[in-house]
Write a sequence for this structure.
């Protein structure tokens, strides 16, 4: 069978044609989101199959929601999603950078440079950038952290919201960092309450659950207590509808009840024996045992969600038991305090333990408002956690990208081979960020880029970029437009990775939509 027949149901593009189509796909993709970059970026209205709508300014959300079929476009979206996972920000930049790298690569291919040479040059440029980027950074402090969070939230929500969100995120992460060296993002819980204003939002040290102790006679606050978590309850078995109890002799029912009673008593005795101060059950706790638990000074909670039991288990270092009677000392956890507090007019249970983090209570007037605030918190917590792990910050507003491009131009001059051209092209691609930021802010893209380059050169400083709020070329650190090093670095790595793998493709085989069922031998 010849190649033609094997590939009968396939459309095939090869060599330059394939690369051209792939570059076009990447450019089209970045064209769809470039208008969202930066604080003056516009929003997109997304409508899904079911007609649900979502207004967003987030590049990765747009791309993940849009039904993109092109395999190369999917590779670029993959880079952006990875960015979202690793760095929590910089997703739009990743896509724009990648498509610009490919656009510039294509120009070199047209001039007769082989894609493999371009790939090598890009790799050299990337290594240079990664090696030097730290030199451009400055160490953050609390004040700079806050500015970085506000920069990261640029274009999302209004000013006062950003202020509140950044303040609370920093506070929450600080609580977690006091107890742990490594910040575990899952230790920050977010709960929401409708009905009041965002300004009323707060951060509480410990785990907050919308629960109240089952009897007021139980202690309200417990300090340094032992806690037991039960995936079950302390209750009589309820009869299921198809269950039969055959009463044949007088007194059977009484003895059955007595046995049940005895089992409850045994469970309470066990709690006493283990010295339990706090108990949380996934299921119910019989009203009849409330007063006995209260007499023992036990604080009890019932109908606690499994997910909350898991959080408690992690916080208090307790293992969840299925049966109280077989529980041991090892299963019991410890809490620093367990208290009942009224928050926003509702009763809450607040547990502080060695392994517990913080809870952010978001308040807002409507579910929609809260949804927007939650997304803001998601972004800002990601950025704050990142900064606590690596406190190095870089000037934003395109400043760092321009500085790297200048550096690459000098580096390229030292490379005598054709890779020199690719390194220059890579540097030019990094400058796309300033051009797009300017464009979105209604400024002249080329003029702005040139002013930034000349200002950086004349002042011998990598901090100059464009501030879209003033429309001026400014020292970005002074203007408070800064971003974590990890985010910029990851955006560059992700974009380069995707661009190089796309450059390597020289053959695209598309299966045709309605592939005929192959005939079986012998027919
Ligand atoms: P991404 O998804 O890539 O994070 P954003 O829409 O969040 O995209 O935009 C981030 C870019 O906006 C960064 O390059 C950042 O430096 C820039 N930026 C933020 N605030 C300003 C500002 N006031 N002036 C200029 N650029 C800004
Ligand atoms: Mg961002």
């Amino acid at each position: 069978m010849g190649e033609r027949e094997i590939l009968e149901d396939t459309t095939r593009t090869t060599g330059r044609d394939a690369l051209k189509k792939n570059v076009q796909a990447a450019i089209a993709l970045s064209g769809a989101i470039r208008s969202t970059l930066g604080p003056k970026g516009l929003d997109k209205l997304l409508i899904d199959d079911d007609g649900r709508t979502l207004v967003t300014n987030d590049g990765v959300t747009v791309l993940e929601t849009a039904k993109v079929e092109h395999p190369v476009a999917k590779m670029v979206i993959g880079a952006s999603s990875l960015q979202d996972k690793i760095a929590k920000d910089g997703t739009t930049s990743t896509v724009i950078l990648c498509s610009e790298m490919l656009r510039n690569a294509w120009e070199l291919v047209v001039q007769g440079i082989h894609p493999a040479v371009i790939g090598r040059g890009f790799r050299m440029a990337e290594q240079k950038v990664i090696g030097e980027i730290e030199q451009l950074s400055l160490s953050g402090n609390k004040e700079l952290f806050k500015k970085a969070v506000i920069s990261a939230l640029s274009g999302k929500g209004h000013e006062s919201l950003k202020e509140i969100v950044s303040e609370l995120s920093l506070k929450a992460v600080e609580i977690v960092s006091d107890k742990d060296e490594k910040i575990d993002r899952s230790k920050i819980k977010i709960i929401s309450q409708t009905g009041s204003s965002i300004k009323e939002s707060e951060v509480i040290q410990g785990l907050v659950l919308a629960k109240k102790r089952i009897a007021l006679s139980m202690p309200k606050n417990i300090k340094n207590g032992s806690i037991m978590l039960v995936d079950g309850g302390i209750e009589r078995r309820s009869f299921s509808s198809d269950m039969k109890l055959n009463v044949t002799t007088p007194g059977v029912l009484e003895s059955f009840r007595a046995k049940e009673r005895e089992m409850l008593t045994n469970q309470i005795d066990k709690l006493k024996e283990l010295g339990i101060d706090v108990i949380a059950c996934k299921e119910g706790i019989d009203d009849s045992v409330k007063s006995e638990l209260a007499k023992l000074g036990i604080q009890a909670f019932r109908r606690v969600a499994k997910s909350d039991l898991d959080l408690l288990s992690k916080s208090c270092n307790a293992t969840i038991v299925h049966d109280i009677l077989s529980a041991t000392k090892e299963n019991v956890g410890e809490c620093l305090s367990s208290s009942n507090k009224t928050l926003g007019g509702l009763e809450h249970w607040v547990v502080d333990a060695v392994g517990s983090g913080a809870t952010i209570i978001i308040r807002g007037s409507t579910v929609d408002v809260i949804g927007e605030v939650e997304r803001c918190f998601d972004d800002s917590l990601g950025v704050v956690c990142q900064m606590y792990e690596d406190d190095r910050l870089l000037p934003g507003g395109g400043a760092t990208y321009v500085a790297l491009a200048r550096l690459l131009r000098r580096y390229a001059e030292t490379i005598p081979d054709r890779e020199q051209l690719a390194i220059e092209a890579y540097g030019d691609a990094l400058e796309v960020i300033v051009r797009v930021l300017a464009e979105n802010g209604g400024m002249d893209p080329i003029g702005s880029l040139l002013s930034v380059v000349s200002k950086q050169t004349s002042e011998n400083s990598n901090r100059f970029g464009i501030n879209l709020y003033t429309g001026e070329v400014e020292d970005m650190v002074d203007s408070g437009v800064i971003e974590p090093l990890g985010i910029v670095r990851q955006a560059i790595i992700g974009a380069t990775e995707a661009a190089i793998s796309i450059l390597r493709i020289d053959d695209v085989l598309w299966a045709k939509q309605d592939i005929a069922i192959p005939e079986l031998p012998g027919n």
Summary: The two ends are 18 Å apart (CA to CA). The longest strand covers residues 333-343.
